[in-house]
Amino acid sequence: MTLAHQPSMWDVAEEATLTPLAGRVRRHELSDGAWVDHLPGWVSGSDEVLDVLLGDIGWREDRRQMYEREVAVPRLLRWYGAGETLPHPLLTGARTALDTHYGPELGEPFVSAGMCLYRDGRDSVAWHGDRLGRGRTGSTMVAIVSFGSPRPLLLRPVTGGPSLRFPLGHGDLVVMGGTCQRTWEHCIPKTAKPVGPRVSVQFRPRGVA
Ligand SMILES: O=C(O)CCC(=O)C(=O)O
Ligand SMILES: [Fe+2]
C-alpha cells in the first residue's frame, strides 16, 4: 500500500508500549448517564503499530445504498472478530489492559476489534451511535485507540445541544461508556486540512456493533 508511514533515516525504532491506565485516564460525565474517558498518549512508540496497520491487513471498501445509488463508505474497514489474532501484539496487550481496567465496571470482556482507515481528510464517519447491537438498549463501552494523523471525535446529545470535541492523536485512548451509544451520537468530520492517514481501533464487547 502507498499510505505507509515513511520513517526518516534517523528515526530510532522505539518499541510500542502501553502506559498505565489507572489514575491517569480522565472521565468526562456527559448528560443522561453517558460518559467519555480520555487518555492522550496511552500508547508510546506507536509508529511501528501504524506501519503494520497501514499495510496489507485486508482493508476493504464498504458500499451503502443511498436512495437510488450505491456509494462507497468514506473510509476503509477491517473487522477482527473474537478469536482472530490482531495484526500487532500491542493491540492484544491493549485489549488485555482494557479488560483489567474496565472489567469490574463493564462486567464482560472486550472481544471484537473493528478498524477504520481514514486515508485523508475526505474520509469521515457521519453522526451515529453504535446501535446495531446491544448499545441500542443497554449501557456498554466502546474503547477506541487512535493511530496516525490526529482527527477530532465530536459528540452531541441525541436530544440536541452543543457538541463536545475530543482530539484523537497518535496513541490516544478514548472510551465511550454508560448510555453514550443511545443518548449521544458521535462523528469524525471531514476536514479540508492536509491530514495524513488515521487508523481507529475500536474494541467492543460481544454483541455490540
Ligand atoms: O474513528 C473513530 O474513532 C470512530 C469510528 C466509529 O465511530 C465507528 O466505527 O463506529
Ligand atoms: Fe461509532
UniProtKB/TrEMBL annotation:
Keywords: Dioxygenase, Oxidoreductase. Residues 109-207 form the Fe2OG dioxygenase domain. PROSITE patterns: FE2OG_OXY (PS51471). GO terms for molecular function: dioxygenase activity. It holds the Pfam family 2OG-FeII_Oxy_2. InterPro entries: AlkB-like (IPR027450), AlkB-like_sf (IPR037151), ALKBH3 (IPR032854), Oxoglu/Fe-dep_dioxygenase_dom (IPR005123). GO terms for biological process: DNA alkylation repair. PANTHER family: ALPHA-KETOGLUTARATE-DEPENDENT DIOXYGENASE ALKB HOMOLOG 3 (PTHR31212). This is Alkylated DNA repair dioxygenase AlkB. It comes from Blastococcus aggregatus.
